[in-house]
Every structure is written in C-alpha cells, then in structure tokens.
Specification:
With 309 residues, the chain is of the alpha+beta class. 44% of the residues lie in helices and 13% in strands. The protein is built from 9 helices and 8 strands.
C-alpha cells in the first residue's frame, strides 16, 4: 500500500534529502532549492522575483553580523534623540510604495553581474537534473538480453526470444500477441499488454512465432531482419542493455555458415581491441601494408609523412 503525503511533507522530505547529499556545498544546495521553486511554482515569472531572492540571501548572510552589532550598541549609552525631521526618512518613503513596484525598483538597481550569476546557477541546476533523469544502460543477462519485472528476453544475432510469465493453465486463445514488421504487442486479452510499441529494429513477421510453454510462460520468437545487429531493448522506451558487454557463446558460432562466422568473430575481436584501446583488425591490416611498402622502398623518406590509418 502506498501512503499518500501532502505537499508540505513532500517538500520537507525533499529538502532534507538534498541537504544530506550536498550539505557541504552551499552553492549546490541553494541551486537545488531555486530549481525546485522554479519547477513547482511560477514564482520566478513574477516581476522582481530575482531581487526578492537576493534580498533574502543578503539578510540571512548579514544576520549574525547584525546581531553582534546590536549587542554592542546595547552596551553603549543611548544617544540623544535626534531633532524632529521635517520630512519622512527615505527608507520609510520606499516602504510606502506598493509591494510589486518596490520590488521592481530594487530589481532595476540590482547589479547585472548578480543577475548573470543567478541565471547561471539555475541553468546548472537544470542541467544536473536533466542528467540525473536520463536513463542508463544495464548489464546484459547470460542470454545477452535482460531480466525485467514483467518479462525477460535473450538474443542472438539472428533472433530475439521474449518470455512472459502467465497464470498457470493459460490457454492460447487467452493470449494477445500481434507481431508486425516494426511493432509488437504481447499480453493477455482483457488486461493491459506487457509490451506494446515500436520494436527496436525491424523483424521478419513471417518467420516470427509464439507459443505457450507448460501453460505458464508465453514465449515469442522474433526473427531479426538485420542479422548483424545487437538489440539494446525489445520495444522502444524499455530499459536498455549495454551492447558493449554482449558476447555470443562460442558454441553458437558453430551453427553459422563460414562467412557469417568469420564476420562475427571479426566483430568480437574488434570490440575487445577497442575496449583495451588497441587497433582493430582493419587498422592493423593497414599498418602492415604500410610497413611492407616502406620496406620495399627504402629510398623514400617517410619521417615527416602524415599517414592516417
């Protein structure tokens, strides 16, 4: 059961979490607070909002100094009362202005550098929030796919196999499976589909199939149209795997024809070389050709030659 909380409790918990994470960085905490206010309200759209925030910050920073000064003043003898002024002091006149007009007047007097610093802080906070919201890849399972809450999937270069748990005793007529060239829907009739959306890549619908395994699992086999591509997910928008960590089992390579197997082995080799920061097979082949050419033409000077592999 999910407990409902009011907005005040949510805000309190949010700022407690932010303070625990960035308490050592006052600027980061302030940027997060301002970004929260910007997202949850239209405060900064009002005239003079930036000046109001600046005054509040200055008041908080000057608080300890003002308190100390007040204590020192209290220890000294009271000064004689000044003569009765002929006109009201300037601060009182400014306070008598309407709230919005006074704030706008002070915003116009605000230094341009302060406004630029505040805009930069808000932009940095927004960029950090966008970066945190961005999805990250997950490590592939043993079948070069992923094990997710509602389903799991594996893949080879030729096909993708999707497995969806269903209630025991489920019949084929209760299943809702639609496989298109670029779309897929998998689920049970009368219930929200487990997967419904555009496929990561195109498939061959005529070569795809689905069946029930022991009345407990719905298994869907998708034949890839491009047999040289590793899928990051089954349906767009689902969690993606890190294809750099995908390594096909050696036993499955024997099922491929010689030409396809050679291509796959070359891809695996190049992938490992790149991961270690070493030249790929193509780069090595070009380097060997250049060495042979240089050996065959010792009369040529290659010391200042710029050669791109």
């Amino acid at each position: 059961m999910i407990e409902e909380i009011d907005s005040a409790t949510f805000t309190k918990h949010y700022f407690e979490k932010v303070f625990r994470e960035v308490s050592s960085d006052a600027e980061a905490f302030l940027a997060a607070a301002l970004d929260f206010v910007r997202q949850e309200s239209s405060f900064f759209a009002q005239p003079g909002a930036a000046a109001a925030v600046q005054r509040l910050a200055e008041r908080c920073l000057q608080g300890p100094a003002a308190a100390a000064q007040a204590g020192t003043s209290a220890a000294q003898p009271a000064a004689a009362p000044p003569a009765v002024p002929t006109a009201a002091p300037q601060p009182q006149q400014q306070a008598a202005l309407p709230g919005a007009a006074a704030v706008q007047q002070q915003e116009e007097q605000q230094p341009e550098a302060v406004q630029q610093d505040q805009a930069a802080a808000e932009g940095a906070a927004g960029a950090d929030a966008a970066e945190e919201a961005s999805p990250s890849t997950i490590k592939p399972n043993a079948g070069n796919g992923a094990d997710l809450p509602g389903y799991s999937w594996t893949q080879s270069l030729a096909e993708v196999v999707l497995t969806v748990p269903v209630p025991p005793g489920t019949k084929g007529r209760s299943c809702d499976v639609a496989i298109g060239r670029d779309k897929l829907r998998v689920g049970l009739k009368g219930q929200p589909p487990v997967l419904d959306g555009p496929l990561f890549a195109s498939v061959k619908p005529d070569d795809c199939l689905w069946n029930l395994v022991d009345g407990r699992q719905l298994e869907v086999t998708l034949a890839k149209r491009d047999g040289m591509q590793w899928w990051r997910c089954v349906v767009a928008g689902e969690p993606e795997i890190d294809t750099q960590s995908v390594e096909p089992e050696a036993s499955k390579l024997t099922d491929l024809d010689p030409e396809m197997r050679a291509t796959v082995e070359k891809m695996m080799y190049d992938q490992r070389q790149k991961a270690m920061g070493l030249p790929t097979s193509d780069e090595q082949r070009k380097a060997d050709i250049m060495k042979q050419f240089m050996a065959a033409h010792p009369e040529m000077d290659f010391s200042n030659a710029k050669i791109e592999m």
